[in-house]
Amino acid sequence: MAIEARFSVMSPEAGIQRVAGEPPPFMGGPPPVMGGPPLSSPVFTRRLDTLENKTIYLVDIGFGGGYNFMLQLQKWFTENMPSVTTIVKRKPGRVFADDNNDLWEEVKERGHAVVLGVAG
Amino acid sequence: MESAAKSNPRAASLPFIYTQQPVIGLSPEVLDSYITGNDPETGKIVIDEIIDALTKPVKEAKLEPESAKTPAGGTPRVLLEPDTEDNLQRLFYERGWTDGLPIILPTEERVAKMLTGTSRSPDEVVGEVFQMDTGELVKYTVANIAVIAVMAGAGSEHFPVILAIASTNQTALMPSTTAFSAMILVNGPIRNEIGMNSGIGAFSPVNRANAVIGRAWTLMSICWGYARPEKTLWSSQGSNLVYNNMCVAENEERSVWTPFHVDKGFRADESVVSIFRGWAIINSPGAASNRSLGEELNIELAVIPPVNSAATIILDPLVARNLKENEGFNTKQDYCRWLSENIKMPAGQYWKTDYIDMLAASEAYQGVEPYASWKKLPDDELIAPYHTPESINIIVVGGETSPLWKASDYRHTASESIDKWRANSDDECEDGSCGLPDEPVDYD
After folding, report:
1. Are B244 and B173 in contact (CB under 8 A)?
2. What's CA A63's distance to the chain center, in Å?
3. Which of B9, B38, B46, B395 is the most buried (most CB within 10 A)?
4. Regarding beta strands A113-117 and A55-60, do their DSSP bridges make them parallel or antiparallel, or are they unpaired?
5. CB neighbours (10 Å) of residue B150?
6. With an 8 Å Cβ cutoff, are B50 and A73 in contact?
7. C-beta atoms of A24 and B136 within 8 A
8. Contacts of residue B9 in chain A, CB cutoff 8 Å?
């Protein structure tokens, strides 16, 4: 026989404070380094008028398959837009955080644009 | 996928372009077809979108994280409207507060009784977790965790262990597309005080303390928001080990070696909870009958290339005793050193493993040893990937009915004192039931 129990029950989410935050120094769990400084709202450089005679960095972020994808993307530009110079690089540091800004400084100095990927 | 990216304040302004999945392990021809094929999110040609993203203005977006917006109705209500048992069970499930199994409804009375298991104030903040995907920082109090503990079926005697787990600031559900799982290990006097199982069937679903403590960690992770598909839950297959996170006690009484928490610097008479996390675990299907345990582990661990040399090996007391009395390993550390020196795998096998390439190759490129030297080796050259004996954890669990073990790539991520979360022994509660197991709950 069904018993109609009447309850006032506590909400599991009640009282849990959810706020916009920044990652703590250590979140626990692999990968060993995950986090890094939070991004401020990004400001983009002015878009290029054309890719003709420009240098584009194709940067692999380190997920499996990313480097090979960038090589094929380089091949596409070579065959279809030969005036575009493409440079394939793997970004410094682990997937989730950079160790230094060397590559980004190089891109600023020598490049006109970056394609970054591929995740997942 | 696109909506998830755009709801993240860290990524909202970035021009995302999607290819077909997966990208990994495919031929150049297939990758070419991805580049000239359609973006599954927009239906447009991927290479056209790439060129457009580089040559057309980007619309900058500035979004607040989801949680920073003022929720409709203001502060969440502590109490739900009274309703029937069935309706409330359904409501908890539909709001995404459970693991799908029925819960014990956290009535005021039950939560109040749970709180007698600790001397800490209900309003004290136990910890916080940060969700990278949503930018949410979730802070939770002793009272919040008491609600979760009731839901998991715990009694107040289990509460200090559950609070200690919550204080590690770790989630049982990792926001990864891979299938992480984790293990909870309890050491010290509280194991026996609350009747945890460290012997026969310690990992089997037969013991209340093991079951409810492990489940509570998962329920709190769900209620912190880690179970929202394509927002915080990404694991393609998931892992049913997360239902109770392999919660177990170490069989200190039958172990010939020091308990795990003592290895980590705690006193033997201190109660401690430890957390381990990884991807792969092998249940040994047979004993080391025709080969030594070292040879067996060499075979098993060599197929799980470790991240930063991490491994956790769970030995039945029979196995540990044999290693000490017949093979001369007086301490766990002696055996870890032996494993570190003797488990080998070809360098090519190591580097061609997806997650090793993702997580360890960057170390090699920066000259960090031993990865830099390993990167230069021919594929068939043997390396010792468990290069740091201190990263190998050995735990003794089991009922001595068979000399078996489990080998895993789990790494130790935290150990926390349980004792500081206990009720003081001189505390009194009104009905004298503090710390006693709850009465069984009657349902229809």
Report:
1. no
2. 10
3. B395
4. parallel
5. 32
6. yes
7. no
8. 20, 39, 41
- Cα B414 to Cα B394: distance, rounded to the nearest angstrom: 15
Q: Residue A78: helix, strand or coil by DSSP?
A: helix
In the beta sheet, which residues pair with residue B311? B392
- Residue A33 belongs to a domain: no
Residue range B391-419, pLDDT digits in tens: 999 999 999 999 999 999 999 999 999 99
Ordered DSSP codes for B166-180: HTTT--SS-SSSS--
3-class DSSP state of B36: helix
DSSP annotation of B222 reads I
The minimal CB distance from B366 to the residues A3, A18, A99 is found for A99
pTM of the model: 0.85
Query: Is the pLDDT assigned to residue B170 strictly greater than 50?
Result: yes
Query: Are A94 and B362 in contact (CB < 8 Å)?
Result: yes
Token pair of A58 as six digits: 């194709």
Is residue A12 situated within a structural domain?
A: no
Which run of H or of E encompasses B383? strand B382-383
Beta bridge partners of B52: none
Residue B240 buriedness (CB in 10 A; 0-12 / 13-18 / 19+): exposed
Give the closest of B56, B105, B141 to A9, CB-based.
B105
pLDDT tens, residue by residue, B282-313: 999 888 888 888 888 888 988 889 988 999 99
**Is A19 a domain residue?**
no
List strands edge to edge, sheet with A17-20.
A17-20, B136-141, B125-131
Indicate the domain borders of chain B.
Answer: 2-55, 84-279+413-437
Low-confidence ranges of chain A (pLDDT < 70): 1-6, 21-43, 98-99, 120
Question: Rg of chain B's alpha carbons, rounded to an integer?
Answer: 25
Q: Give the whole-angstrom CA distance, residue B57 versus residue A47.
A: 6
Hey, which residues does B141 pair with through a beta bridge?
Answer: B125
* Residue of chain A whose alpha carbon sits nearest to that of B46: A73
Strands (E), B254-329: 272-278, 281-283, 311-315
The interface predicted TM-score of the complex, written ipTM, equals: 0.79
**What is the tally of structural domains in chain A?**
1
Average model confidence (pLDDT) for chain B?
89
| 3-class SS letters over B325-344 | HCCCCCCHHHHHHHHHHHCC
**Residue in B153, B274, B128 with CA at minimum distance from that of residue B219:** B153
> Is the residue at A26 inside a domain?
no
Angstrom distance (rounded) from CA B27 to CA B32? 9
Which structural domain range is residue A78 located in? Answer: 55-117
Give CA–CA dist B416/B392, Å, rounded: 19
Report the alpha-carbon distance of residue B256 to residue B222 in Å, rounded.
Answer: 38
Decide if B22 contacts A65 (C-beta within 8 A): yes
Is the separation of the CB atoms in B194 and B157 below 8 Å?
Answer: yes
**Neighboring chain B residues of A2 at a CB cutoff of 8 Å:** 444
Residues in chain A: 120
* CA gap B394, B279 in Å, rounded: 17
